[in-house]
Amino acid sequence: MSTAEILEGGVRDVLLLCDHASNAVPADIDLGIAPGLLDNHIAIDIGAAAVTRGLAARLDCPAILATVSRLVIDLHREPDHIGLIPHRSDGHLIPGNETVDKAARIARFHAPYHRVLRDRIRAQRPRLILSIHSFTPCLEHGGTDRPWQVGVLYNRDTRAAHPTVKFFEARGFVTGDNEPYSGRLLNATLNRHAEAQGIPSVAIEIRNDLIRDAAGAEEWAGVLADLAAHLLP
After folding, report:
1. Angle at the Cα of 41 (from 186 to 126), degrees rounded to 5?
2. Burial 128-141 (b: 16+ CB within 10 A, else e)
3. What pLDDT does 130 receive?
4. pLDDT in tens, 200-226
């Protein structure tokens, strides 16, 4: 099973990433959960893949989408992160992960995925990397309402992030500046493949009730296409 799907495009200035695009679980892995949970946010960023595909088509740019659920391994975490292979997610136990061979799962999924990103970025050298995610209006267990329509996540490099916040606010969106969680804590993919390489980047978090259907995903693909045009000199 390949860990990444690559969409090719003619425009090389932008690269799109979608770490949580899939809820797929390989047949030889038993997570020990009810199948219906794979349709929840704990398994996949709802709507993020559709937005990424729509945006890639609008920009005619490459995109890399992960092909395995974050319940198998979270590709948007460092290898030593406590949540890399979750034993619990948003109150749901994942019993099949309690005795997993961590090194083997990293070697099978995490390392190959990040090699794909590394090699693509070396070959393409984009001027901008956008990482597309989605978040829940409220966590299932112990959460409070999240009023933001879109969040902008970043770590130290603010070259793309600060203009992105201003762009969304000017459009009238309720915008989270490093909300609903901070990119200074959760920014593993962009830290490694963008910031460390000197490439401007930003992670876009869209509230998933806005992109659950095709119309919403297409609308946000249009918004982000305008954003990309705004960010590129």
Report:
1. 50
2. bbbbbbbbbbebee
3. 98
4. 999 999 999 999 999 999 999 999 999
pTM for the predicted model, two decimal places: 0.96
Which residues of the chain are modeled with pLDDT < 70? 1, 140-143
Q: What is d(CA 191, CA 130) in angstroms, rounded to the nearest whole number?
A: 12
Distance CA 88, CA 95 (A): 8
CA–CA separation, 116 vs 65, rounded Å?
11
Q: DSSP string of 103-141?
A: HHHIIIIIHHHHHHHHHHHHHH--SEEEEEEEE-SS-TT
Alpha helices in the chain (DSSP H): 48-59, 102-105, 111-124, 161-170, 188-193, 214-231
Q: Which domains does the chain have, with CATH numbers?
A: 4-231 (3.40.630.40)
Name the residue among 122, 14, 118 with its Cα closest to residue 61.
14
